[in-house]
Design brief:
The complex is a heterodimer of chains A (539) and B (423).
Chain A: E1 2-11, H1 15-26, E2 31-34, E3 50-51, H2 62-78, E4 83-84, E5 88-92, H3 100-111, E6 116-118, H4 120-126, E7 136-140, E8 143-145, H5 147-160, E9 164-166, E10 169-177, E11 180-188, E12 194-204, H6 210-216, E13 223-234, E14 242-245, E15 254-258, E16 261-265, E17 269-270, H7 281-294, E18 303-315, E19 333-336, H8 337-341, E20 346-350, H9 357-372, H10 398-405, E21 412-414, E22 419-420, H11 421-431, H12 436-443, H13 455-465, H14 471-489, H15 495-511, H16 534-537
Helix pairs in contact in A: 1-5, 1-9, 2-3, 11-12, 13-14
Chain B: E1 2-8, H1 12-23, E2 28-32, H2 60-65, H3 72-75, H4 78-94, E3 103-105, E4 111-114, E5 120-123, E6 125-127, H5 128-131, E7 139-144, H6 152-161, E8 166-171, H7 183-191, H8 193-204, E9 212-216, H9 224-235, E10 239-242, H10 249-264, E11 268-271, E12 273-279, E13 287-292, E14 295-306, E15 316-318, E16 324-326, E17 379-381, H11 391-394, H12 397-417
Parallel strand pairs in B: 1-2, 1-14, 2-11, 7-8, 7-9, 9-10, 14-17
Antiparallel strand pairs in B: 3-6, 4-5, 12-13, 13-14, 15-16
Helix pairs in contact in B: 1-10, 1-12, 4-12, 8-9
Classes of the chains: A alpha+beta (539), B alpha/beta (423).
Chain lengths: 539, 423
């Protein structure tokens, strides 16, 4: 077993954990970040992509709304490259109470959120697909955020300041020395190698999994309610502005244009465990009906993919158990285990939302600094992340412009997401990965309408070609990816996406026969070799 | 103007039916939204590979005989009918406009031919340009850096795992000055004698004794047999093609062959015509209605062959409320899970509950209602629209399309030849 030592160990590679690592590194702490999987593979990578204006909370929780207002402005500045400045509209479709709009305006004033009521005609001119019967519309400062760009930007920034970022490192145990947490034993999930990490401080930023990690430190009574939210990506930008239903927060009340797609969300269903988030056909159906209310014809549009994320909603005993998680606070919870449990060197940050990741990180590191008795103020509100130094926001045409400049000298591997061969091979080498799904998160590979139908064979060939994988491993990775894609496709498979899926089957099964390759199938999804009893089936 | 028969669709099933009918003397009209799915296929005729495979290679005819009664192969008349269709296609290709280009094979045994990932896929019949892929002699798999749809090292590595000595060679070819060339662009490149001569020149010094040469299926569109023979001659060893991702050069050749036959036989083809519904109702349809742009056009015929494909081609559709139907004539689908039952399951490689959904037909390929009686006496359904098969899993799609298209035409021609006893 090998060992590492550092000032701080951060557990969790979502936006919060990466934000914490960035904050620590900027304050000069020697930092190690671990995640059991890839960066932003959990809740951060499974949301709709909204950078809140605050409008969603102005009526119910003006102070949470105010946090959003402040953080929205900061994130736009420090992570400009990850943001598309779509703007947002809160609209009152037919059937909803227009009087809620008055409460919305009052709440906005209280929260200090800039808002402008515009006429329904102006809203329709801006977004022609909106329900033509809409009664009121309010323009706000919503934006969409590419969470992988954000989280990798944070990780890169942290690394440039000396942090060691270790995805695919699972925490097996936390070490205690008396009342202090002094480190962790982690396992490299790719190599199987175990690693002892010795630290002065451990920051638990594992979100929906925070109770599990806290339990390893011997802390009891941390409850994080997993609130399941499903989201459906439609294959077009049905709208170019974030569209919110102007009502008390409910299911299917938001449509976010992000990159080449638009994402509708979400639901809020108590789930048993954050790793078990099945999507039901009934949930999909309800979400499609919600979409129809915002944008008529929604059901005729092409649903490309569905997924579920899990909100980490911190719960203490006072609220008790209730079936609805929507009423549990969305503001974050910072647990100082020295005060709460008499355990030093250990803090848990959970709850919250992506928009306030930076504030959550800052609060956490401030608490650590205080406990250590240091004097190191945070600077994340004013330090721009790598990649955002020009202060330019992402625009939809960016990749196309880059592609057109290189049509003659760089192959295009993924037509849907306009990913060139050079960039893909560079990323394969830089990440040193054997997993096509890692490349998806880094580059959006396979996330477009064909869901990998064409690019996955190519990417497999390239990954094999640069020597990352041997033949059977390459095909294993391809099969794994096909299974991963299928997971998000089959519950919404109808219309043109079914057509696409059948074409993909045609390619992978009919043309390539990927399911019957010779060689080493260890660790691969079970093959289809269960032979039906044809004799018995003859009638 | 009325035709003897209308065929809807220009894939293998539709073109086969149309050509065979025209050959039999029928006046045929082909309506289609566009060029069919031939351009997507590897153009091998996979009749049955899985999951009824006992051992490989195996006798395909015997495997067909063991299929359930609602399988399309049982509906077309079993192995003899499939064999007749293979014979017919072999003759069409041999007599076609691509000189020396032939199909070979049959139901006696499956041949295991390498795919673009290096799997060995069972196929009953294939172009002669691919047959050299069979066997266990050493192979040099050759690819082109410009063709991202074929990765020779991956093919070679997986062939090696199957016990075939294989290595890869990657060449550079200048195609239109672009970094990218798909299979179609490369095939056009190979149509040029100088260009293919240059490829042969690059390879000639790099071959090892006893080695075959596997290339992506890009050996020309105009005269593939000549390109292939020239390469074999220049390199002094067997050369074979391996199908790539779409667009498929061998698929385009197959389309060109059948299209030329139809033209020669006086068949008429209208592309850009989407059939929107039946003309008339009841026991016999009068023809079909079709949309050409925004205009609706009516086409009359004595017989209608529906060859619009499955869900991949848009011949079958499933709406967002999970109701399925056949798109052109609105025929009901058999094999659909009941309301509330899952249509798909979580395992990608598992057989999906609605995998075999399609139009149910009687023994004369006429669509049947719930009672099992034909809904229309003069409509035949062929190809991927048929219920009862899971084509890509089974490796049966091409064989079903070919044999059902052929069989539908034979049934119509046979009925016309019989003396009319009932008016």
């Amino acid at each position: 077993m090998t060992g590492l030592s550092a000032d701080v160990l951060v557990i969790g590679g979502g936006a919060t954990g990466a934000g914490v690592a960035w904050d620590c590194a900027l304050r000069g702490y020697d930092t190690v970040l671990v995640d059991r999987g890839d960066l932003a593979e959990g809740t951060s990578g499974r949301f709709h992509g909204l950078l809140h204006s605050g409008g969603r909370y102005v009526v119910k929780d003006p102070s949470a709304a105010h946090e959003c207002v402040v953080e929205n402005a900061i994130v736009r500045r420090v992570a400009a490259d990850a943001i598309e400045d779509t703007g947002g509209l809160f609209v009152t479709p037919p059937g909803d109470d227009p009087a809620y709009g008055d409460r919305f305006l009052a709440g906005s004033a209280e929260a200090g959120m800039p808002v402008e009521e515009i006429t329904p005609a102006a809203a329709l001119a801006r977004e022609p697909r909106l329900n033509p019967g809409l009664q009121r519309a309010f323009a706000v400062a919503d934006a969409s955020v590419d969470v992988w760009k954000l989280v990798w930007g944070l990780a890169r920034g942290a690394s440039e300041h000396g942090a060691r970022v270790l995805p695919y490192h699972r925490v097996l145990a936390l070490r205690r020395s008396g009342d202090a947490v002094t480190g962790a034993r982690v396992r490299n999930e790719l190599s199987g190698e175990e690693l002892e990490i010795e630290t002065g401080f451990t920051l638990n930023a594992s979100g929906a999994w925070a109770a599990e990690i806290a339990g390893m430190a011997g802390v009891e009574g941390v409850h994080v309610a997993p609130g399941k939210g499903i989201m459906i990506a439609m294959n077009h930008r049905l709208v170019n502005t974030v569209i919110n239903r102007c009502v008390m927060p409910t299911d299917g009340d938001i449509l976010v244009p992000i990159r080449t797609v638009s994402v509708i969300g979400t639901t809020d269903i108590r789930s048993a465990h954050p790793d078990d988030l099945p999507v039901t056909q009934a949930e999909v159906d309800a979400m499609l009906d919600d979409g129809e209310r915002l944008v008529p014809g929604f059901r005729e549009a092409r649903a490309m993919r569905v997924w579920a994320g899990v909100r980490p909603l911190f719960e203490d005993k006072k609220t008790g158990d209730t079936d609805s998680t929507r009423d549990v606070s969305r503001s974050h919870a910072l647990l100082d285990h020295a005060e709460r449990d008499g355990i030093t060197g250990f803090l848990t940050i959970t709850g919250g939302k992506l928009t306030t990741y930076r504030l959550m990180a800052q609060d956490t590191v401030d608490a650590m600094v205080a406990q250590r008795g240091d004097d190191r103020p945070g600077t994340t509100a004013s330090t721009v992340l790598p990649g955002s130094s020009e202060g330019k926001h992402y625009t939809l045409g960016t990749r196309l412009r880059d592609r057109e400049a290189h049509l003659d000298d760089d192959q295009i591997v993924c037509e849907c997401e306009l990913i060139g061969r050079r960039r893909l091979e560079d990323t394969m080498r830089a990440r040193g990965t054997r997993n096509l799904d890692d490349l998806r998160r880094s580059l959006r590979l396979g996330m477009g309408p064909c869901q990998g139908g064409f690019c996955m064979y190519r990417a497999t060939g390239l990954l094999h070609g640069i020597g990352r994988l041997d033949g059977p491993e390459a095909v294993g990775s391809l099969r794994f990816f096909l299974q991963e894609r299928w997971k998000g496709v089959w519950p919404i498979l109808y219309g043109d996406q079914l057509r696409q899926a059948r074409l993909d089957d045609w390619i992978f099964q009919g043309l390539l026969d990927v399911e019957h390759l010779p060689g080493d199938d260890a660790g691969l999804p079970p093959g289809p070799d269960t032979v039906p009893d044809a004799e018995a089936a003859v009638t | 103007m009325s035709h003897d028969a209308i065929d809807v669709g220009t894939g293998v099933a539709g073109l086969t039916a149309a050509v065979r009918l025209a050959e039999g003397g029928a006046r045929v009209l082909v309506l289609a939204k566009g060029v069919g799915s031939t351009h997507l296929t590897g153009a091998t005729i996979d009749v049955l590979g899985n999951p009824y495979m006992g051992s490989d290679p195996f006798n395909v005819g015997e495997a067909i005989a063991r299929l359930p009664a609602d399988h399309p192969y049982a509906r077309v008349g079993g192995a003899p009918a499939v064999a007749a269709a293979l014979d017919w296609l072999r003759a069409q290709v041999a007599d076609g406009p691509l000189e020396g280009y032939e199909y070979a094979g049959g139901l006696e045994r499956n041949r295991l031919l390498p795919t673009a990932v290096g799997a060995l896929k069972p196929t009953a019949m294939a172009p002669v340009t691919m047959l050299g892929g069979e066997g266990r002699d050493p192979v040099a798999v050759v690819g082109f850096r410009q063709l991202k749809d074929f990765h020779p090292a991956l093919v070679a590595d997986n062939l090696a795992r199957a016990g075939i000595a294989a290595r890869s060679i990657e060449l550079d070819v200048a195609v239109e000055g672009r970094a990218d060339a798909n299979a179609q662009a490369l095939a056009r490149h190979f149509d040029d004698p100088a260009a293919r001569g240059a490829v042969a020149g690059q390879l000639a010094g790099r071959m090892r004794a006893g080695e075959r040469v596997g290339l992506p299926a890009v050996l020309g569109l105009r005269d593939p047999a000549r390109v292939w023979r020239e390469l074999e001659h220049r390199l002094g060893r067997p050369v074979f093609e391996i199908p790539t991702l779409p667009p498929s050069a061998p698929g385009m050749r197959l389309y060109a062959i059948l299209r030329a036959a139809l033209r020669r036989l006086g068949g008429r083809v209208i592309l850009g015509a989407a059939v929107t519904g039946p003309l008339g109702a009841g026991a016999r349809l009068d023809g079909v209605r079709a949309a050409v742009g925004r205009r609706e056009v009516v086409h009359r015929a004595g017989e209608v062959i529906l060859a619009t494909g499955g869900f991949a081609a848009g011949g079958l559709v499933l709406d967002s409320r999970w109701a399925g139907r056949e798109a052109a004539l609105g025929l009901p689908l058999a094999g659909m899970p009941a309301a509330g039952e899952p249509r798909f399951t979580a395992g990608y490689f598992d057989e999906q509950p609605m995998a075999r959904a399609g139009v149910a037909v009687d023994g004369e390929l006429r669509p049947v209602g719930r009672d099992g009686a034909p809904a229309h006496a003069n409509v035949r359904v062929v190809g991927a629209s048929l219920a009862g098969a899971a084509p890509w899993r089974e490796k049966s799609g091409d064989g079903i399309s070919l044999s059902s298209g052929h069989r539908a035409a034979e049934l119509i021609l046979g009925a016309a030849a019989r003396p009319a006893v009932a008016a």
